[in-house]
Description:
Blueprint: E1 2-8, E2 14-19, H1 22-31, H2 37-40, E3 46-53, H3 56-68, H4 71-84
Antiparallel strand pairs: 1-2, 1-3
Amino acid sequence: MYFVYILECADGTLYVGITNDLEKRLHEHNHAKQGARYTKTRRPVVLKYFERRRTRGRALKREYEIKTWPRAKKLALIARRKKSQP
Length: 86
């Protein structure tokens, strides 16, 4: 199982990535040297959205799709997820 996720950085920017261990990856983004270069200088980061994919290939395709979207569309995706949660 893989996760496609969106983080909000301390400077308000959004970061899109994939992982097979969401909790570990979030910790790396906030604390470890292996965190993505982009997020290292924009800590702390907050998980705003995630979705599951069965394979790495499908996760990579979805990550690429979301990365090509304008910021407004990413924010709309995050907002829709919040509305659908109890």
